[in-house]
Amino acid sequence: MLAIEQAADGKIDWGSVYDAVAIDVDANSSPDKISAALALGVKIADGLVAVKSQDVEKLNNSATQIESLAKKLGATDDELRRARLVRENANKGKWLEVFLELGFLQSDIMKILAKDENANMRRLIIASGWMQGARHVTYYLSSNYNADASNVLREPLLVGELAKDISTLPPEIASHPRVQGLTPALTEALVIVTVAKDQPVSKENVQKLKATADTAVKSALGLQ
Predict the structure, then answer these.
(1) What SS3 state is found at 190?
(2) DSSP label at 194?
(3) How large is the C-alpha radius of gyration of the chain?
């Protein structure tokens, strides 16, 4: 997001991007840990865009949803105390502290999931989070295409690892209806983001990636 801002002319209205892309998730709509992990990745990505928008209501909503979903995965109130700090600092307009606390909150959640028994949930969170982040970035670039900024999508090593992680999930997880769309989506995304360091991602491919990510996230949230 910082790289896009540097390449763009003028201030980016991240609030408008958030309004167009973010998806509210009721933790009760995640009937199991697999669904909750996928939704959590989506909301962590939304939370970062909410911070960039410096909109208290958006940030509070995202933090609340992140907290609820993390609890579905076994996180305790004490382990999620930073979610409250995020909201408190947002309400005070301390946006640097908000950004730092949100990063710590994400780190705390990932530490909870670092246990061997939670390794697969961690994979799902990272994959769905990347897809939702791609939705935010491609939404902006589709309407405000900038060849220099498009290169932020060039992440073949990361996407390749994500694709490998999801394709090697245990059968009982890979067969979950909300997981099944991730493997083909990451395979398609890998082709799109594999470009030379000095080459842009074309506007056409930005739009293709947007369509791919849209489908993957909606499937991960059980919206289609």
Answers:
(1) helix
(2) -
(3) 17
In this structure, what token pair is assigned to residue 44? 């962590």
Contacts 24+ apart (CB under 8 A), 105-113: 105/63, 105/66, 105/80, 106/44, 108/79, 108/80, 108/82, 109/40, 109/44, 109/66, 109/70, 109/73, 109/75, 109/80, 112/70, 112/73, 112/74, 112/75, 112/79, 113/73
Please name the residues in contact with 114: beta carbons below 8 A apart, sequence gap of 6 or more.
Answer: 122
**The length of the chain, given as a count of residues:** 224
pLDDT, tens digit, 9 for 90 and up, residues 53-108: 999 999 888 888 988 998 888 878 887 787 788 888 888 988 888 878 877 877 77
Residue 49's CB is within 10 A of a number of other CB atoms, namely: 26
Q: 23 with 65: CB under 8 angstroms?
A: no
Sequence letter at residue 95 = W
Report phi then psi at 63, rounded to 5: -65, -40
Q: Are 224 and 218 in contact (CB under 8 A)?
A: yes
Regarding predicted confidence, which is higher, 178 or 2? Answer: 178
**Helix H or strand E encompassing 134:** helix 119-143
